């Protein structure tokens, strides 16, 4: 069956991106303001906001809550953008909701000149879906910034969270860390508590000033709050507030994201918004977290890892992980990036650890030409090959790689939905 919403999505994509809240406010007004009927936890940040959302969602779900998750981009399917307790909306239900969104857009056109973008329509749809499904909490991830992000239409969230802030989307958010942090801090609301992941002092200062301006209680987390006891490619064990936790997402940065989720859950309990608090629930929730595309191991021999690193800070964290665990193994990158990303700086972190790079252009209007990426990699003293897509590159890499090699698929989350599982599943999975 061909669902009509795919055609609607394709048409809305042509409207591009337009930061601002007016259009989404008007659309939500037509829908009856469903965003006012749900308990929203709003999450912003450059890197890590999706992981924080995944950890917190898993904790709250473990306690028996009904938890909505609105995320983008997605790994396996478009429908994953709208989830309840980790289950994506069905195609049949999404068809119904897009039919209603289409009706709302027609009604809006009768009195407004504004034309909502795809992200604005998706945001409104998520609020409507979660309100009608009666979720206990709706975890809402910003798309790009904060202040003018469509999700910031929420006037009174329960809690706001800000993960790691670094350089990205400079053309929209600013050229300095302070400017970018200011945009992320735009989600902070008057008297609403904000939890902030470990960040550099410059970022913390901007967020602290915004929180004081809004009289919002702020909790700033630091690296020394958690003691990492063990790290491996299968995850990390750490101590926080004298309690031991295990997370199945590898990388030191995921410990920071997990602590942010723990602090958020504890704050919800202190506020009386989450009566199901227990250390057992927190521990089991973290241990059951699943978040594909983040240092995700797809195959064992050769080892295939995919990671959504798409900016310099993400590339730096990926490089730290590779250097820690695979110093004496040959690393081959399969990489596609978007042309508005700082791919040369990304390569400066990744190239010293890798021997070869297979470049391809993501199937995206913003995709960088594979030849351009390959030329930049050559200047970093890497051997390169050019391919038409991620699946062709991965198939070739698996054919040529030795069992002890490490293949890393990275550069963007945008192409991961296109990856063909049949290619890597020809080997044993961890």
TrEMBL record:
UniProt entry keywords in alphabetical sequence: ATP-binding, Ligase, Magnesium, Metal-binding, Nucleotide-binding
MF (Gene Ontology): ATP binding; dihydrofolate synthase activity; metal ion binding; tetrahydrofolylpolyglutamate synthase activity
EC number in record: 6.3.2.17
SUPFAM superfamilies membership: MurD-like peptide ligases, catalytic domain (SSF53623), MurD-like peptide ligases, peptide-binding domain (SSF53244)
Essential cofactor(s): Mg(2+)
Origin: domain of life: Bacteria
Top-level EC class: ligase
GO CC terms of this entry: cytoplasm
Residues covered by the Mur ligase C-terminal domain: 293-412
Chain ranges of the Mur ligase central domain: 43-265
A Pfam family it matches: Mur_ligase_C
PROSITE patterns for this protein: FOLYLPOLYGLU_SYNT_1 (PS01011), FOLYLPOLYGLU_SYNT_2 (PS01012)
Catalytic activity reported: (6S)-5,6,7,8-tetrahydrofolyl-(gamma-L-Glu)(n) + L-glutamate + ATP = (6S)-5,6,7,8-tetrahydrofolyl-(gamma-L-Glu)(n+1) + ADP + phosphate + H(+)
Family: Belongs to the folylpolyglutamate synthase family.
Protein name (record): tetrahydrofolate synthase
Species per Swiss-Prot/TrEMBL record: Candidatus Anaerobutyricum stercoripullorum
Lineage: Bacteria, Bacillati, Bacillota, Clostridia, Lachnospirales
């Amino acid at each position: 069956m061909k669902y009509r919403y795919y055609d609607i999505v394709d048409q809305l994509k042509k409207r591009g991106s337009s930061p601002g809240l007016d259009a989404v406010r008007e659309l939500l007004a037509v829908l009856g303001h469903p965003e006012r009927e749900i308990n929203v936890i709003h999450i912003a940040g450059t890197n890590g906001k999706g992981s924080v959302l995944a950890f917190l969602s898993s904790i709250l779900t473990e306690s028996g809550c009904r938890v909505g998750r609105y995320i983008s981009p997605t790994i396996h399917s478009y429908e994953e953008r709208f989830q309840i307790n980790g289950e994506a909306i069905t195609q049949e239900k999404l068809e119904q909701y897009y039919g209603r969104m289409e009706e709302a857009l027609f009604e809006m056109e009768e009195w407004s000149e504004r034309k909502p973008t795809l992200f604005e329509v998706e945001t409104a749809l998520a609020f409507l879906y979660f309100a009608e499904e009666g979720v206990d909490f709706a975890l809402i991830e910003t798309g790009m910034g904060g202040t003018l992000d469509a999700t910031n239409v929420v006037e009174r969230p329960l809690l706001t969270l800000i993960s790691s802030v670094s350089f990205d989307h400079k053309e929209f958010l600013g050229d300095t860390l302070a400017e970018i942090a200011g945009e992320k801090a735009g989600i902070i609301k008057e008297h609403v508590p904000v939890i902030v992941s470990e960040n550099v002092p410059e970022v913390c200062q901007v967020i602290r000033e915004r929180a004081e301006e809004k009289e919002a209680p702020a909790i700033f987390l630091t690296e020394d709050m958690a003691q990492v006891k063990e790290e491996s490619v299968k995850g990390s064990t750490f101590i926080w507030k004298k309690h031991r936790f295990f997370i199945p997402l590898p990388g030191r940065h995921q410990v920071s994201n997990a602590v942010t989720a723990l602090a958020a859950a504890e704050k919800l309990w202190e506020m009386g918004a989450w009566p199901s608090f227990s250390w057992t629930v927190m521990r089991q929730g973290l241990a059951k977290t699943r978040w594909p595309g983040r240092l995700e191991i797809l195959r064992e021999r050769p080892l295939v890892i995919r990671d959504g690193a798409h900016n310099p800070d993400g590339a730096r964290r990926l490089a730290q992980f590779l250097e820690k665990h695979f110093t004496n193994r040959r690393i081959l990158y399969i990489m596609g990036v978007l042309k508005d990303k700082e791919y040369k700086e990304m390569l400066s972190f990744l190239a010293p650890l890798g021997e070869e790079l297979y470049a391809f252009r993501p199937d995206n209007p913003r995709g960088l030409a594979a030849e351009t990426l390959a030329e930049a990699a050559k200047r970093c003293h890497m051997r390169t090959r050019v391919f038409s897509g991620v699946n062709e590159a991965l198939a070739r890499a698996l054919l040529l790689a030795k069992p002890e090699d490490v293949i890393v698929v990275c550069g963007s989350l945008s192409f991961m939905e296109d990856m063909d599982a049949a290619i890597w599943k020809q080997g044993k999975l961890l």
